[in-house]
Design brief:
Shape: globular
Radius of gyration: 27 Å
Number of helices: 23
Number of strands: 19
Low-confidence stretches: 1-58, 263-271, 698-703
Length: 731
């Protein structure tokens, strides 16, 4: 979905979140949109031809008057149209500088404290530079960055050829986002010595021969200089502007002319990819999320948090090491023709950076609506009074096939139409209760979430939208009547975002059903794409770029925003979490939670009371405490999360090997407990376990078993229904 607004007009369509596109488009669009993630734009821009000169020594030349003009226009538009009201002053200037340095050197491995002191001379002047369209200081800082990268490259190439001592008790800090700048070149050399040693150990742990590891890493460090020298003026300008945009708010970003062109192509679904949101994390390409129904998702072997460390074509033997590459370069070799195979070397998040990579073959394809479509199943719950039939509708996204609808196709795919049909079928099959499973649903069509809510409530408001003028529009379900009137639950997790949060919030506010699971993502803002050409009478031989700007905010009908806090479930799982790196709450400069006036609505007349909720919660706690399968699953989650939360790594090879062997032993033990609980044979070795998992993942048409969380949600809903009936009988 893409929105253009001309002067003196209102948005014709609203985007529910950056993952709106995630659910409907292909891989490369996520790169164009990656600035909304608050990640370094220098690592998320698309490769483009330069519109300005590039010097012969590989350094970026001065930007042109055209860039200066764009800078002023962007400044004016951010001040005028952004939902967040801010003042571009000396204090805000410091935030822009910090954002820029964080984009260039997020791990603090290139600049020294002395460099930062030099840059800080300009700390309160970036507001003046922006107002004047002056990019000279930002360009000079980038040139100093290039110089430091070249120095580190030379150091690393020399160091990798020297022998390593791998029996020390030193620890290497993996996550350096909160680290301090090194005080001198000597201190930086020590840091890089450990950094290179850690990279070497990782290669040995991946079963790379020592001589091959040295050769591979040397090539990686040589390429550091090459990659930095290839950054074109338009890419640099995009980085400079996005330091300003990111200091305002993380979902606001500038798209250069080439990135804008790529954005348009992606929105038309005319390219093919793997269906994943990527960003740069340290030297790695990290998978932020996987598109339901996309090629990566259908392998069953790719998860959010995994790191891609190698990419090849057709065969594993063609895999190239891509650690340290710019994201745009990674995208170029992942992207390809529909039907062709890309081979990824993936380091699973669950095993940590010391784990062993796995090879995943993915057939490139467009994201197909049928793979995202709603589906149903019935699970039977054994209760003292007999079996209870619980209908489950799995909804990966809020989708609609606009092209088919506009062609006049009567059976075009749309969330509400499909769910309505499934509900009719489930009603005929005699279900007692209903669960809508929104786990991992990142959002989609706003009109569909409004109409879908209408299947479960009578007429009434669904969501409020507050814009930059302070005006609030209320979107309502105008159709009287409901399709399903029985007991229902909505199952959510931290991957449920935007439209999912609107739906879950409305069901909760109407007290129409119980919300079960984990707190949602917390994305409650609206983005609009504005072409700069529409806001100036001045013409150039080539089009200007675009600004993706946060223009409004969603609010629930109870007046509370879905932004930042997300939707908090009525009954929550107490599960361990990966630290910091997920949800709106993790984004720097994210808009805060707030509330507006309540939209008048009528609560459901069969709502579960707070007393009944507490009774059901107590029953659930007693049940999961005595359920070995649930307990083992939580233990497994805890093991995987603990590995994913590792902040340091030992530089002692024997200790690293021992730690991985312990992890494998613990994982095998837990998996075998689950095998026994399911009446299946145990795995003899960790290799047998992983081979079995890969074989299982290869068959993407195998029906997924009912997981312990869905099973427990069904029991909770059944408890609530029975308690409600018993309470009514006593009155």
């Amino acid at each position: 979905m893409k929105i253009r607004i001309n002067n003196n007009t209102q948005p014709s369509t609203w985007t529910a979140n950056y993952k709106t596109t995630v659910k409907a488009v292909i891989f490369t669009s996520f790169v164009a949109l990656a600035g909304c993630l608050g990640t370094p734009p220098s690592t998320t821009t698309l490769i483009e031809s330069a519109n300005a000169a590039e010097s012969s020594d590989g350094t970026v030349a001065e930007l042109t008057p055209r860039h200066s003009f764009e800078y002023k226009i962007i400044n004016s538009m951010l001040k005028r149209y952004h939902y967040k009201k801010f003042e571009l002053n000396d204090d805000f200037s410091g935030k822009i500088l910090d954002q820029y340095l964080d984009q260039l050197d997020p791990s603090k491995v290139y600049f020294t404290e002395a460099d930062i002191k030099t840059f800080n001379v300009h700390r309160d002047k970036f507001d003046d530079y922006i107002n004047n369209g002056d990019t000279e200081v930002a360009v000079n800082i980038f040139k100093k960055y290039q110089q430091r990268v070249n120095e580190r490259s030379a150091f690393a190439v020399k160091r990798i050829e020297q022998p390593f001592t791998l029996d020390s008790d030193q620890e290497y800090l993996l996550d350096r986002k909160d680290a301090k700048w090194e005080i001198s070149e000597t201190a930086l050399n020590k840091l890089w010595d450990n950094r290179i040693k850690n990279a070497y150990i990782n290669e040995i742990l991946a079963d790379t021969a020592p001589t091959e590891a040295v050769k591979k890493l040397k090539k990686r460090y040589v390429n550091m200089t090459k990659r930095t020298s290839q950054i074109k003026p338009n890419e640099l300008f995009q980085t400079i502007v996005n330091a300003y945009a990111g200091a305002v708010e993380p979902h606001t970003s500038y798209l250069s002319p080439r990135s804008s062109e790529q954005f348009d192509i992606n929105m038309s679904l005319s390219l093919s990819g793997i269906g994943a949101v990527l960003r740069t994390d340290e030297d790695h390409t990290k998978i932020v999320s996987v598109v339901p129904g996309g090629p990566a998702d259908l392998t069953g072997q790719i998860s959010s948090g995994d790191r891609i460390i190698g990419v090849g074509q057709k065969t594993a033997s063609s895999i190239k090491d891509i650690v340290g590459w710019r994201l745009s370069d990674v995208v170029n070799i992942i992207r390809g023709e529909k039907g062709s195979t890309v081979v990824l070397s993936v380091l699973p998040n669950s095993t940590g950076l010391s784990g062993k990579p796995k090879t995943v073959n993915i057939v490139r394809d467009k994201i197909k609506l049928e793979h995202q479509a709603a589906s149903k199943r019935i699970i039977e719950i054994e209760r003292p009074k007999g079996k209870v039939k619980v209908g489950v509708i799995d909804l990966p996204s809020f989708y609609i096939d606009f092209k088919a609808r506009n062609r006049g196709d009567k059976e075009y795919a749309a969330t509400t139409r499909d769910v309505k049909k499934l509900l009719t079928e489930l009603n005929k099959e005699g279900i007692d209760d209903l669960i809508i499973d929104l786990r991992g649903n990142g959002g989609g069509s706003l009109s569909e979430v409004v109409s879908l809510t209408g299947l479960f409530i009578d007429k009434g408001p669904v969501v409020q939208i507050n814009d930059t003028t302070g005006r609030t529009d209320i979107l309502k379900d105008e159709d009287a009547g409901v399709v399903y009137n029985g007991p229902m639950a909505v199952l959510i997790d931290s991957g449920s975002a935007s439209a999912s949060e609107i739906f879950a919030g409305a069901i909760q506010d109407y007290q129409r059903g119980v919300i079960i699971g984990e707190t949602t993502f917390g994305k409650g803002t609206v983005q609009t794409v504005l072409p700069l050409d529409s806001y100036t009478r001045k013409t150039f031989d080539k089009p200007l770029g675009q600004i993706k700007i946060t223009s409004a905010q969603f609010f629930r009908i109870n007046g509370e925003s879905t932004q930042h806090k997300g939707v908090i479930p009525d009954l929550a799982w107490n599960l361990p979490k990966i630290e910091g790196d997920f949800g709106e709450r993790a984004y720097k400069n994210a808009l805060p939670w707030r509330r507006i006036e309540i939209a008048k609505h009528k609560d459901f007349n069969k709502a579960f009371s707070s007393t009944i909720m507490q009774q059901a919660k107590a029953k659930s706690q007693a049940r999961i405490t005595s359920n070995p399968k649930f307990k083992t699953t939580v233990e497994k989650v805890k093991l995987l999360v603990t590995a994913g939360n590792e902040k340091t790594a030992s530089l002692n090879l024997k200790k690293r090997i021992a730690k991985r062997e312990l992890f494998d032993k613990q994982l095998l033990s837990l998996e075998n407990k689950l095998q026994v609980a399911n009446g299946l044979p145990e795995y003899k070795t960790i290799k047998e376990l992983r081979d079995a998992q890969e074989k299982k993942n290869d068959d993407i048409f195998t029906k997924k078993p009912v997981d312990v969380f869905l099973d427990e949600a069904a029991h909770i809903l059944t408890d609530l229904n029975e308690l409600n009936i018993n309470s009514a009988a006593k009155q």
